[in-house]
Design goal:
The complex is a heterodimer of chains A (about 160) and B (about 425). With about 160 residues, chain A is an alpha+beta fold. Chain A has five helices and eight strands, in the order E-H-E-E-H-E-E-H-E-E-H-E-H. With about 425 residues, chain B is α/β, with parallel strands linked by helices. The radius of gyration of chain B is 23 Å and the shape is globular. Classes of the chains: A alpha+beta (about 160), B alpha/beta (about 425). The structure holds flavin-adenine dinucleotide and iron/sulfur cluster.
C-alpha cells in the first residue's frame, strides 16, 4: 500500500495535516502531522508531501540502528519509537520530506498509513490523496512521482533538463 | 572470492551486507581495532549522557555476523597492507589474504598540538571507549570542571550530554560562532541563545593556547590570556581521515583516499568508502571528504556491490547536516554562505525560526533551516541532482508565512510555544 498524491486535485485546505496531527496528538498541530502541504499560491499549486513507502527506502538504509522497518501487513515503513535515537539522518535523507522530527520527544516520525486506513484519505474531499494497494503498482508509482515533479516544474514555467 | 574489509562501522558493515546480497558463497572478513560489534558512532554521546547503554546503539542485532556469514576479527589493528601479494598484516602478527579489499578505516579526532597536550585528562570523542571513559570520570568526581574545545556538531552533542547529567561546561570556540561549517551567523545565534539560556558558557572567537598541569590537566589557557580551570578537556575540532594504510600501500591520496564513483582507488581490487574516502562533490564541484554517516552508508553500499562484481555508481554525496540543541532543531545543506554571484533569500527570521535559501541562477545551492526541518531532504535532493528550483524563490516564503499565520489561528489547540 502507499498513498498516491495528486497535486492537481489538491486545493490546499490542509485538512489532511489537521486530521493527521489530531489522530496522533489529539490536537491540531501541523508540525506533528505526517503530511505537509507545500503551497504555491500564485500558481494555485499545492503539493502534499508525505512518505511514498518507497521500495528502496533511503530512510531505512541510513538509520544507524535499523529503527525503520516494513510493516508486513501494510508494507508501510514504520519507525520503532523505542529504537529511534533521534539522529535525524532519515529526515535529512528523504527527498520528499516524508520523515519529520518531533523535538519534544526527540524522535523521528512518519506516515504509517494509519495501519491501513489512512485518516487523511478520508478527509480529502477533492480526492487528491488515494490509497493504492498491491505491489504491481510499484513501477507505476515511481513513474507517477517523477512525472508529477516534472509536470509541476513545467507548470511553474521552469525549463526542465530531464 | 575473498573479501577483506578494514573498519567495522557505517561503511564497512553496509559494504559487507551489499556483498552478501550478491555473492552468497564468498568469504567476507571484517577487521577492526575496536573490540565491540558494530555500533553507531553518532550515538556515543547518548551513552555519555547516560540516556543509552552500549547495547542500545548497536548498528545491527546480535547474531548479525553469523547470519551474514561474516568473519569478524575484532580488537585487532591492521598495520600494513601489501597490494601486490594481496595480504594484510595484523599488529599481533597474523596475516590475512584477500582478492578484494575495502578500506573503511574512518577518521580520527584532530587534537591540537599546543603545549601540554601530553597531559592526562585530554581526550577526543570518537569511540565508545572515549564515551565510557569520560562518563566514568564524571561519575567518579561529581562537579569536575570540564571544557569542551571546538564548536561543531560533536561539541554540541557532548555539551548537551554533560548538561543532561547535571554538569556544567565551558565551550571554547575558535570561530566567532558555533557550528560555523553548518550554519550562518544568524542561525547560529539562535542556537547560541538557547545554549546560554541552558547555562553553558561559550567563549567565541578565541582559540586554545596551552594546557596546564603536572601530569594531569588542571587548566587551559586561551589566546587572550584567560585561564580556565579544567580537569577534563574534550576536544572536538574536526577529524582527519585514517590514511596510513593507504599511504603505505602507495594509493593515490589527497585529503582522503581518492576514489571514482565506483569507490575504486588508484589500485585495482582495492576500494575505499566512508570518512576515509575522497569522492566528487557536485555542490563543491571538486573532490571532497564528506565525513558524514549517510555518506558512509551510501559509499559502503556502492563499494560492496562493485566489489562483488556489479557496476554501480554511488549516489552523489553532498554535505547535509542536522543538529539539535535541547529541542531546537537546525539543518543545512550545500552552501550556507553565498559566494559572489549567488543570491540569498531569508524567508523567515524570528525567534526560534529561520529559513534561508541560497540560489545560483535558477538552481538552489544551499539551505539553512532552524525550526521544522523536514524539507531539508527535499532541498538536498534538488541540490545534489541539480534540479531547477527557481520557483522556491517566489513562493516558499509565502508558504512558511501562511503556515505560521495558520498556527496562530489554531493557537488555542496548539501546545507548541
Ligand atoms: C560523537 C559523534 C557524533 C556524530 N554525529 C554525526 C551526525 O549527527 N551526523 C552525521 O552524519 N555524522 C555524525 N558523525 C560522523 C559519523 O559517525 C561518521 O561519518 C561515520 O561513523 C563514518 O563511518 P566510517 O565507517 O567511514 O568510519 P568510522 O565510523 O570512523 O569507523 C572506522 C573504523 O575502522 C577502524 N580502523 C581504523 N583503522 C584501522 C586499522 N588500521 N585496523 C583496524 N581497524 C581500523 C576504526 O577503529 C573504526 O572502528 C558523528 C561522529 C561522532 C564521533
Ligand atoms: S532519527 Fe530515529 S529513525 Fe531516523 S535515522 Fe535516526 S534513529 Fe533512525
Amino acid at each position: 500500500m502507499y498513498l498516491d498524491v495528486n497535486p492537481e486535485l489538491c486545493t490546499g485546505c490542509s485538512l489532511c495535516e489537521a486530521f493527521c496531527s489530531f489522530r496522533r496528538e489529539k490536537a491540531i498541530w501541523p508540525t506533528k502531522s505526517c503530511i505537509s502541504v507545500l503551497k504555491y499560491e500564485r500558481e494555485a499549486l499545492y503539493i502534499p508531501f508525505t512518505c511514498q513507502q518507497c521500495e528502496k527506502a533511503i530512510c531505512a538504509e541510513v538509520c544507524p540502528v535499523q529503527a525503520i522497518k516494513r510493516n508486513a501487513h501494510t508494507r508501510a515503513w514504520e519507525i520503532d519509537a523505542n529504537k529511534c535515537m533521534g539522529c535525524k539522518m532519515c529526515v535529512a535523507s528523504c527527498p520528499l520530506g516524508g520523515v519529520a522530527f518531533d523535538p519534544h520527544r526527540g524522535r523521528a516520525f512518519k506516515c504509517d498509513l494509519c495501519g491501513g486506513d489512512p485518516e487523511c484519505v478520508k478527509v480529502c474531499a477533492p480526492g487528491a490523496l488515494k490509497l493504492v494497494k498491491g505491489p504491481e503498482v510499484v513501477l507505476a508509482k515511481r513513474r507517477r512521482v517523477t512525472q508529477n515533479m516534472l509536470h509541476l516544474l513545467q507548470n511553474w514555467g521552469v525549463e526542465t533538463h530531464v | 572470492m575473498r573479501y577483506l574489509i578494514i573498519g567495522n562501522s557505517a561503511a564497512g558493515v553496509t559494504a559487507a551486507e551489499a556483498i552478501r546480497k550478491i555473492d552468497t558463497k564468498g568469504e567476507i572478513t571484517i577487521v577492526s581495532d575496536e573490540p565491540y560489534p558494530a555500533y553507531s558512532r553518532i550515538f556515543i554521546t547518548n551513552v555519555l549522557a547516560g540516556k543509552a547503554r552500549p547495547e542500545n546503539i548497536l548498528m545491527r542485532p546480535p547474531g548479525f555476523y553469523e547470519e551474514f556469514q561474516i568473519k569478524a576479527v575484532l580488537g585487532q589493528k591492521v598495520v600494513q597492507i601489501d597490494p601486490a601479494n594481496h595480504e594484510a598484516y595484523l599488529e599481533k602478527g597474523a596475516v590475512l589474504t584477500f582478492d578484494r579489499l575495502l578500506l573503511a578505516t574512518g577518521a580520527s579526532p584532530q587534537l591540537p598540538s599546543v603545549p601540554g597536550s601530553g597531559l592526562r585528562g585530554i581526550t577526543g570523542m570518537r569511540t565508545l571507549a572515549d564515551a565510557l571513559e569520560v562518563a566514568k570520570r564524571i561519575e567518579d568526581t561529581p562537579g569536575l570542571p570540564v571544557v569542551v574545545v571546538g564548536g561543531g556538531l560533536v561539541s554540541l552533542k557532548v555539551t548537551e550530554a554533560l548538561i543532561g547529567r547535571g554538569g556544567e561546561a565551558t565551550l571554547i570556540v575558535k570561530s566567532p560562532q558555533v557550528l560555523s561549517q553548518m550554519l550562518d551567523e544568524r542561525a547560529a545565534g539562535i542556537i547560541q541563545r538557547r545554549m546560554a539560556d541552558a547555562g553553558v558558557t561559550i567563549r567565541l572567537g578565541c582559540d586554545l593556547r596551552a594546557y596546564e598541569g603536572e601530569g594531569e590537566l588542571e587548566a587551559v589557557y586561551l589566546e587572550d590570556g584567560q585561564e580556565i580551570a579544567a580537569r577534563l578537556a574534550i576536544v572536538a575540532k574536526g577529524v582527519r581521515p585514517n590514511l596510513e594504510l593507504a599511504q603505505g600501500a602507495g594509493l593515490h591520496v589527497n585529503q582522503g583516499i581518492v576514489v571514482n564513483p565506483y569507490q575504486e582507488t588508484s589500485r585495482e581490487g582495492i576500494y575505499a568508502a566512508g570518512d576515509v574516502a575522497e569522492a566528487y562533490d557536485p555542490v563543491r564541484q571538486q573532490g571532497s571528504v564528506n565525513a558524514m554517516w549517510p555518506n558512509a552508508v551510501f559509499q559502503g553500499e556502492a563499494a560492496g556491490l562493485n566489489m562483488a562484481g556489479q557496476r554501480v555508481a554511488c549516489r552523489p554525496g553532498t554535505r547535509v547536516n542536522a543538529a539539535s540543541f535541547l529541542g531546537l532543531q537546525a539543518a543545512s545543506v550545500g552552501r550556507v554562505r553565498p559566494l559572489d554571484g549567488d543570491e540569498e533569500e531569508v524567508v523567515v527570521n524570528r525567534e526560534g525560526y529561520y529559513h534561508k535559501l541560497v540560489f545560483r541562477e535558477e538552481f538552489l545551492v544551499g539551505a539553512v533551516i532552524v525550526g521544522d526541518i523536514r524539507s531539508i531532504g527535499h532541498y538536498r535532493w534538488l541540490i545534489a541532482e541539480q534540479k531547477p528550483a527557481h520557483f522556491l524563490r517566489r513562493e516558499l516564503g509565502r508558504k512558511i508565512y501562511n503556515f505560521s499565520a495558520y498556527r496562530l489561528q489554531v493557537a488555542p489547540w496548539c501546545r507548541e510555544a
